Inverse folding.
């Protein structure tokens, strides 16, 4: 297809038209001429490929240039540049109500004419680009609204009360179970803070926990109290996690509430019955595990629908973190031990999950060398989250397309300390990398988890990259 632009030159002066057509042709344009307004309209609607109209206003008897322009623009969007000898105000004013791309006086000279034509084309294509962008924005907004409706429908399927807030800790929405628990509908809740919805002492505790979560990121689990729709206090378990936008910026949080009032009352009534206590606690673990699995399933559905979206990596990161915690609850449920977990099995299960998705996609091969170690649940939680982030980091700096890439995870106990190592032979960290000053969310989370247990993290770089985490076995 030729890039040569075609101009329809409309002028009733034959000699002038011929000279101007030759001049435009010499400057790279293809020129079609019309001697009247009627001929111009007929030419354009005959199917000729015209890119711009150079329109005289005074075309003698019959239709003038402004009327011809109105008829043309009523049926086709095309740049029109008026060209006339007239500079009288009433003549120029006739063109103001028409979507034209300029008014050029014939005596202005060839340079001005060429510049005006070029400007008209630029304005036209800029306008077309703006319309296209506006249409894309409209389509994106419609798609976002569709996704929001889909997410809301999915959240409604969760039997536990679910809520979500923005980065200013204002409620964005909730599910029907949350409405039933609080006795407030979502329209009453949306846009409000906890201080506008609950009594001050409860609201203050909720707000402090929310702000801690925004500061530390990751996930948060704690027990609290809520007043239900009948005005009675209920003991509940809050399970919350932040969600991030582009660039890793925290945009809000989502929370799931599990009513544990009955469990708490049963524990108080049967404090001496150890076996019953264990059964009740296991039920709580099972319920939290199921809730996390529901959330993981929802995120997987969204990942499948956002194959080419910038939000995909953020959703996958959230999914892996939720799975890490869900796997811990699964092991606790199976083992029947609420305080200790086989850390080696837990980490190996996490590695297997990451190997099925993240690691294989990076072209790396991952192996484990984990000694049999039991650990406190808090230490295991932190170790699992840290492992997830370090393996993710290793895949990030892999060598795509280069065979022989490997990651090795090692765990051992030494002098009442647990030592977790993740080593890889990828591209390596940037030359100016400093673990104490890293801004990446994943490594910041690792640092926070290690600090929480008064441990240390060391980074060694030679032919490989090695992260070594050392924490006390009791986590204190």
């Amino acid at each position: 297809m030729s890039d040569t632009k075609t101009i329809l030159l409309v002028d009733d002066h034959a000699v002038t038209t011929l000279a101007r057509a030759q001049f435009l042709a010499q400057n790279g344009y293809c020129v079609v001429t019309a001697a009247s307004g009627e001929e111009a309209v007929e030419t354009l609607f005959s199917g000729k490929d015209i890119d711009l109209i150079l329109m005289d206003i005074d075309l003698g008897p019959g239709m003038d240039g402004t009327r011809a322009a109105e008829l043309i623009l009523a049926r086709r969007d095309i740049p029109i540049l008026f060209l006339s000898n007239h500079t009288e105000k009433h003549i120029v004013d006739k063109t103001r109500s028409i979507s034209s791309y300029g008014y050029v006086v014939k005596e202005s000279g060839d340079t001005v004419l060429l510049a005006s034509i070029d400007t008209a084309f630029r304005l036209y294509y800029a306008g077309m680009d703006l319309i296209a962008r506006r249409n894309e924005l409209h389509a994106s907004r419609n798609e976002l609204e569709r996704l929001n409706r889909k997410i809301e429908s999915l959240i409604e399927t969760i039997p536990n009360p679910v809520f979500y807030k923005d980065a200013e800790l204002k409620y964005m929405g909730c599910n029907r179970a949350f409405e039933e628990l609080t006795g407030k509908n979502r329209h009453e809740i949306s846009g409000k803070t906890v201080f506008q919805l609950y009594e001050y002492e409860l609201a203050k505790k909720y707000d402090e926990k929310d702000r801690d979560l925004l500061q530390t990121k990751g996930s948060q689990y704690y027990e609290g109290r809520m007043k239900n729709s009948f005005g009675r206090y209920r003991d509940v378990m809050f399970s919350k996690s932040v969600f991030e936008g582009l660039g890793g910026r925290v945009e809000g949080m989502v929370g799931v509430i599990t009513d544990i009032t009955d469990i708490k009352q049963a524990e108080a009534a049967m404090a001496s019955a150890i076996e019953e206590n264990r059964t009740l606690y296991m039920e709580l673990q099972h319920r939290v595990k199921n809730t996390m699995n529901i959330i993981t399933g929802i995120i997987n559905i969204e990942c499948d629908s956002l194959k080419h979206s910038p939000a995909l990596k953020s959703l996958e990161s959230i999914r892996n973190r939720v799975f890490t915690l869900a796997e811990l609850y699964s092991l606790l449920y199976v083992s029947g031990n609420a305080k200790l977990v086989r850390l080696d099995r837990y980490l190996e299960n996490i590695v297997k999950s990451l190997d099925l998705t993240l690691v294989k996609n990076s072209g790396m091969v991952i192996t484990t060398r984990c000694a049999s170690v039991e650990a406190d649940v808090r230490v295991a939680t932190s170790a699992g989250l840290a492992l997830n982030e370090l393996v993710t980091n290793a895949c990030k700096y892999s060598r795509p397309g280069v065979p022989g890439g490997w990651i090795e995870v090692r765990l051992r106990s030494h002098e009442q300390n647990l030592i977790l190592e993740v080593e890889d032979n990828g591209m390596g960290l940037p030359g100016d990398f400093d673990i104490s000053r890293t801004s990446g969310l994943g490594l910041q989370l690792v640092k926070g988890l290690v600090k929480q247990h008064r441990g240390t993290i060391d980074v060694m770089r030679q032919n490989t990259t090695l992260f070594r985490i050392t924490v006390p076995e009791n986590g204190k």
In short: The longest strand covers residues 233-244.
